[in-house]
Design goal:
alpha+beta; 4-stranded antiparallel beta sheet; about 30% helix
């Protein structure tokens, strides 16, 4: 099977409350994160919402485990984009 290119998007509704748990998971699975981009609204200082984009490498089992744990964090929405044939 050809390698996949996977992007995982996280939307944090209250990043001040969720940041510690999310960061802990990103650290735990850091060996599978090739690229991480954090976005937040700059027009509002201290806005509670934020978006994190992750480029994932490695095996599917690790990705599935990370995504599953992220989905368990209250208020964190997770979306995946999987490009099968890159």
């Amino acid at each position: 099977m050809e390698p996949k290119h996977v992007v995982v998007g996280l939307h944090l509704t209250d990043r001040f409350q969720q940041a510690t748990r999310v960061q802990s998971l990103l650290t735990e699975y850091g060996h599978q994160i090739k690229t991480r981009i954090g976005l937040h609204r700059t027009e509002e200082l201290g806005t509670p919402q934020g978006v994190i984009l992750l480029e994932i490498v490695g095996d599917d089992a690790g990705r599935v485990a990370l995504v599953g744990k992220l989905r368990e964090v209250p208020g964190v929405e997770v979306q995946e984009i999987v490009f099968e044939h890159c």
